[in-house]
What does this fold into?
Amino acid sequence: MSRYQEAYTRVTGRPAPAAAATLDTLFDQIAAGKTLPPKAQQAVALGLTAHSLNDAKENPGLFDYYRWVLTHCFAAKQINELTAKLIGMAFTSANIFQTDLPQPITLNPWQIQAMLAFPLAAAKAVVIENNGVFALLHQHHPDWPLIVQSGNDFNPAYVQLLQRLEKRGVQFAYIGDLDSRGIQMADHFYTQLQQTPIETVTALQPPMVVARWVTLYGKPDTHRTRSLTIQHPIYQQELATIHLQGKFVEQEQLIDDYERMIPAWLAN
It folds into this structure.
């Protein structure tokens, strides 16, 4: 039993949850002052689902134990982790525009009009659904052209700038969670575009690669692999793979694969 579990049991009078030992490595990293990736990436590195450390409903017992240890064992310690919190209703990107401003930059809806004809620094961009994956890839590869899509935040200003970049020749490849909602969001993203081929948008997550990832890394969950309405046949095919296997894959699990695939796509 680790010192964290011992402290929890001694103070609360309750046994630590069954999976408590899973968090020992993370707690030791915090104690050593190491820089941590975004919280979802921390969870996946431990073999948990991405929301296990920031959503009490994902694994209530483990989440309560995690929060208790942070509060009581590290109360006086600054936890050094890369934040995934970005401003909502905004266009956040890195290395898309020619500017001397530190990257990434976040544009609010009032700034969009002024950026429609702003000089560009990239002809390709990877659009990332997950804030934490964006933050981590930018930290690892500060020169990569990246755009945050942020789930369902398809506000008019965001879409307007996205479509203008597309008309100016920027090509978009999209990466997101390989579950029902993730595929539906990717499908919806594609519907916002006006001239980019589906083969370009899915270049980093084509059906054959998705099938391989689901087979290799998939985690079973009937809710996250349920059938949903999808418009484009390629995304219908990808959702069918996920639904039939009953397994999903989160973006955080694919960082190593992304880091191999993205440079080749940008250079092609």
About this structure: The longest helix spans residues 60-73. The mean pLDDT is 93.
